[in-house]
Design the sequence.
């Protein structure tokens, strides 16, 4: 539930920023960069109230959705949805703030909305791609891992293979993707050191292979039966 508590912290900070906007609406973007002459043409009082409502709603909804998804076992989806909810809240905030600004220039609002919309699209796409499980199969004398940080491991380079119910503790991520449950890329594990991970921590078992070239590699799938089948295929080849 670590992701749920992080979500509560972030949501709480957004709610606090909403309350702050009631006190100092002039700090809201894009008002913070305006001259005094420009600020005189902004209805700061009503802008602050509307911003407060939008930010409080964004903080509560994003934290609540993240908490629910974490509680039912979808922490990675919870983080993804929370980020996208916050960005969407930012887009709504910019659109609402425009209503209270009588200055003729609207470029700062359009720029802000376009920027956040692009951010929404890019982040959403990246999180979706990163959260997808790696494809893992044994074919043509190799263990083929496709997707992010994919690689191919010739079976004749595998020196040891074992199946584990749990992984050693992760000490550090050196070059990879870490999304609560999904771990891909280069990591350091307790008592193992440098290794490659292609795992979803929600699902057990895990396959651990040691090669003469790459070193330690750990992987699993979201189907325990498939993970065991892959282990049997690799084990039978290594023990021949």
Sequence:
């Amino acid at each position: 539930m670590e992701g749920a508590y992080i979500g509560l912290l972030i949501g709480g900070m957004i709610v606090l920023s909403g309350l702050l906007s009631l006190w100092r609406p002039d700090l809201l973007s894009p008002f913070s960069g305006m001259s005094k002459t420009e600020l005189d043409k902004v209805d700061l009082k009503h802008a602050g109230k509307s911003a407060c409502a939008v930010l409080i709603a964004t903080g509560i909804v994003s934290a609540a959705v993240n908490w629910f998804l974490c509680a039912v076992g979808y922490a990675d989806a919870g983080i993804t949805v929370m980020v996208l909810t916050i960005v969407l809240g930012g887009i709504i905030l910019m659109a609402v703030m425009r209503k209270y600004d009588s200055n003729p220039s609207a470029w700062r609002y359009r720029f802000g909305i376009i920027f956040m919309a692009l951010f929404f699209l890019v982040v959403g796409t990246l999180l979706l791609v990163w959260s997808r499980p790696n494809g893992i199969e044994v074919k043509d004398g190799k263990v083929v891992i496709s997707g992010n940080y994919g690689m191919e491991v010739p079976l004749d380079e595998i020196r040891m293979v074992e199946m584990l119910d749990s992984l050693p503790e992760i000490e550090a991520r050196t070059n990879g993707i870490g999304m609560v449950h999904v771990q891909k890329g280069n990591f350091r594990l307790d008592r193992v050191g440098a290794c490659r991970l292609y795992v979803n921590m929600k699902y057990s078992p895990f396959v651990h292979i040691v090669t003469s070239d790459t070193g330690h590699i750990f992987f699993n799938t979201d189907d325990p039966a498939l993970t065991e089948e892959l282990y049997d295929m690799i084990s039978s080849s290594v023990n021949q």
The chain has six helices and nine strands.
